[in-house]
Write a structure and sequence with these properties.
heterodimer; A: mainly alpha; 78% helix; B: Rossmann fold; Alpha-Beta Plaits; 2 domains; six-stranded mixed sheet; four-stranded antiparallel sheet; 11 helices; 13 strands
C-alpha cells in the first residue's frame, strides 16, 4: 500500500527546504567546499604530482560522496527522533498510513536530496575542475546507492534506540564519523596500526570506500563482490534489528 | 441498534504498571460519550486501545463491528482521531497538512477547504504549524480528525491548555459534530467540559470505571445534597427554617442563612416556608452539586489532586 507515499515525500522535501540552512547546508555548502578544496589541492601541488592526481581524481569524489551520504543519514536520524519525541510519528500512525510508508518516505527524501547534491557536484566538477576525470558515472551511482542504503540502515538502527532527540545527532556522529576515520579514505587500510586495521575490517564504511574507489577508478564489479556482500549483509542485519526495536513514541 | 463501540473486560499494563485494570462500557450511535478522570487514570490508554494504536493484554473491543487490532487500517479509514499533545511537522503549512490527510483516506467525502472555512482557519491556510496559536492548532487537529467524514470521532483532552474563550469555541465545534450524526468519544479531566458537552460519562480512576450515566443522573444518585442560601433580617426566620421537612442543617452568618438538605424538593419547601410566614428576603440562591462533587464523593479526593 503506497497510498500517501508521494504526497508525504513531497511535503517532507518542502519542509526540509524550509529549515534554516536546509537547502543551503545540504546542497550549496558541499558543492562550495568541493570546489574550494579541489582548487587548493590542485594548485598547492605540482600538476604532475602523483599525490595530487590521485587525491583529486579518486579520493576527493569518494570523500565527498561518503560525507554527503553520512550527513544525510545523520539528518535522518535526527528527524526521526524529533518526530518521535513530538508525537508526529504517532499522529501519522493514527491514519490509514502504513508504518513502512512513513519510513520509506523519509528515506526517499534523503535519497533525492543526496542525489541532487551529487548531481550538482558532478556538474560543478565538469565545469570548473582542472583535471579531466572520466569515471563510470552509472556504475558509481549504483555503488553509491548500495552504500547509502547500507549506511541508512545503520542510521535507522541508531534512530530506533536513541532515547531522545537531543542525543540523536551526537550519538549518530559518534558512531559514524570514527568509521570514516578508519575506512581507508584518509589513510590506506594497509598502513593503519594493527588494532585499527582490525577495526577497519568490521566497519561497514571500509567496504563502502573500497567499493566506491574501485568503481570510480574503473575496476570491474567482480573485483568488489566482497564489498557488496558486506554492505548487503549490514543492510539486512541492521534493518532486521531496527524493525524489532523501533519505537513509535 | 447495536452500540458503536463495545469494550469488554479490557486490561492493559506497561511492564509492572497496570494502566487499565478492567474496563467495560458501550458507546451508542450519535452520542457524545466522555471518559472522565484525573491524569494517569487510564483514559488515554483506554482510548488508544479502541483506536487500534495499542493492543490490550486482555478483553475484547469492537468498533463499528471491527476489531481494532486485526482490522486497524479498515477501522482507521472510518474513524477520526485527535491525539493528546500531538504535534505536526513544525514547518508544514495548514493546507499541506489537510491536503496530505485527504490523500490518506479511501473515501473523499469532505472538501478540505470548506472544512478549514468552517473551523475558521481559512486565513491561516498558508501558515506554518509552528506559528499557529494553541487554539488554532487544536482546530487544525479537529479538521484532520474530520477530513474523512468519520463515523466516530475520538478526541483526547481536546481543550487542555486552551484559554476559556477558545475552549468554548471548541465545545461548539464538538456539538456540531454530533449534529451531523457522528458519534463522539472524548476524554477530559475538566468536569465542566464533561457536564456541558457529554450525553453520558464514565468516571474512571486507577484503571477502573466507577460509574457510567448521564451527568445529571450521576449527580442525583451520588450527591442528593442541596443548599439554599438566602439573606433576611426576620428574627424568627431561623426557627422556621429548622422546621422545614427535609432540612438537615441551618448555618447562620450574620444575616445570611445556608439551609442544607437533600433531594429536589428542598428548594420548593424553602420557598413555601418563606411565603407561608411572610419572610422577606434580600438574597436567594441555590447551590447544586456538580460532577466535581460526584468525583470527590466517589474517590475521596478532588480530580485536580
Amino acid at each position: 500500500m503506497l497510498r500517501g507515499l508521494w504526497k508525504l515525500t513531497w511535503v517532507e522535501i518542502k519542509i526540509f527546504l524550509r529549515e534554516p540552512l536546509g537547502a543551503f547546508g545540504t546542497i550549496v555548502i558541499p558543492v562550495l567546499v568541493f570546489l574550494v578544496v579541489g582548487r587548493l589541492v590542485g594548485r598547492g601541488l605540482p600538476a604532475s604530482s602523483l599525490a595530487a592526481d590521485s587525491f583529486v581524481q579518486v579520493g576527493l569524489p569518494v570523500l565527498a560522496s561518503v560525507l554527503i551520504a553520512v550527513s544525510a543519514v545523520l539528518s535522518l536520524v535526527t528527524i526521526i527522533s524529533i518526530y518521535r519525541e513530538g508525537g508526529i510519528l504517532k499522529r501519522l500512525r493514527a491514519t490509514p498510513l502504513r508504518p513502512h510508508t512513513i519510513l520509506t518516505a523519509h528515506v526517499t527524501v534523503k535519497l533525492i536530496l543526496t542525489a541532487a547534491t551529487l548531481a550538482l557536484l558532478v556538474l560543478a566538477g565538469k565545469r570548473y575542475y582542472p583535471v579531466g576525470v572520466h569515471a563510470p558515472l552509472l556504475s558509481f551511482t549504483i555503488a553509491l546507492l548500495i552504500t547509502t542504503w547500507s549506511i541508512l540502515s545503520i542510521g535507522f538502527l541508531i534512530a530506533s534506540i536513541v532515547p531522545t532527540a537531543r542525543f540523536a545527532q551526537p550519538i549518530g556522529a559518534f558512531i559514524l564519523y570514527p568509521m570514516i576515520g578508519v575506512s581507508g579514505l584518509f589513510v590506506p587500510v594497509a598502513s593503519l596500526p594493527p588494532v585499527l586495521r582490525g577495526l577497519a575490517r568490521v566497519v561497514p564504511l571500509t567496504y563502502a570506500v573500497s567499493l566506491l574507489e574501485g568503481i570510480w577508478k574503473g575496476e570491474e564489479w567482480s573485483a568488489h563482490m566482497i564489498d557488496v556482500a558486506a554492505l548487503v549483509l549490514v543492510f539486512v542485519v541492521c534493518t532486521a534489528l531496527a524493525t524489532k526495536v523501533f519505537r513509535w513514541e | 441498534m447495536p452500540p458503536i463501540i463495545q469494550v469488554s473486560g479490557v486490561r492493559k499494563s506497561y511492564g509492572a504498571t497496570v494502566a487499565v485494570h478492567e474496563v467495560t462500557f458501550e458507546v451508542n450511535e450519535g452520542e457524545i460519550f466522555g471518559l472522565i478522570g484525573p491524569n494517569g487514570a487510564g483514559k488515554t490508554t483506554t482510548m488508544e486501545c479502541i483506536e487500534g494504536l495499542r493492543t490490550p493484554d486482555r478483553g475484547s473491543i469492537s468498533v463499528l463491528g471491527l476489531d481494532p487490532f486485526k482490522d486497524v487500517y479498515k477501522l482507521q479509514d472510518r474513524i477520526g482521531v485527535q491525539l493528546q499533545q500531538a504535534q505536526l511537522q513544525k514547518r508544514i503549512k495548514v493546507w499541506e497538512a489537510v491536503d496530505l490527510w485527504v490523500s490518506l483516506y479511501q473515501k473523499k467525502a469532505i472538501d478540505g477547504e470548506r472544512l478549514l472555512e468552517q473551523l475558521g482557519l481559512t486565513d491561516k491556510r498558508g501558515a506554518w504549524f509552528m506559528n499557529l496559536s494553541g487554539g488554532q492548532k487544536q482546530r487544525l487537529f479537529i479538521a484532520l480528525a474530520l477530513i474523512n467524514d468519520p463515523e466516530v470521532v475520538f478526541l483526547d483532552e481536546l481543550t487542555t491548555g486552551l484559554d476559556p474563550q477558545s475552549r468554548r469555541a471548541i465545545w461548539d465545534l464538538v456539538r456540531d459534530i454530533r449534529e451531523r450524526g457522528k458519534t463522539v468519544f472524548l476524554t477530559t479531566h475538566l468536569m465542566e467540559e464533561a457536564e456541558r458537552l457529554c450525553d453520558r460519562v464514565a468516571i474512571i480512576e486507577h484503571g477502573r470505571i466507577i460509574d457510567i450515566d448521564r451527568p445529571e443522573n450521576l449527580v442525583n444518585r451520588h450527591c442528593p445534597e442541596r443548599t439554599v442560601v438566602l439573606a433576611t433580617d426576620n428574627p424568627i426566620a431561623e426557627e422556621r427554617f429548622r422546621a422545614i421537612p427535609g432540612v438537615e442543617k441551618v448555618v447562620r452568618t450574620d444575616l445570611q442563612f445556608s439551609i442544607l438538605g437533600r433531594g429536589d424538593d428542598l428548594v420548593t419547601a424553602v420557598i413555601h416556608c418563606l411565603s407561608e410566614h411572610g419572610i422577606r428576603v434580600t438574597d436567594f440562591r441555590t447551590i447544586l452539586p456538580n460532577l466535581e462533587d460526584v468525583f470527590l464523593k466517589l474517590t475521596g479526593h478532588s480530580i485536580r489532586e
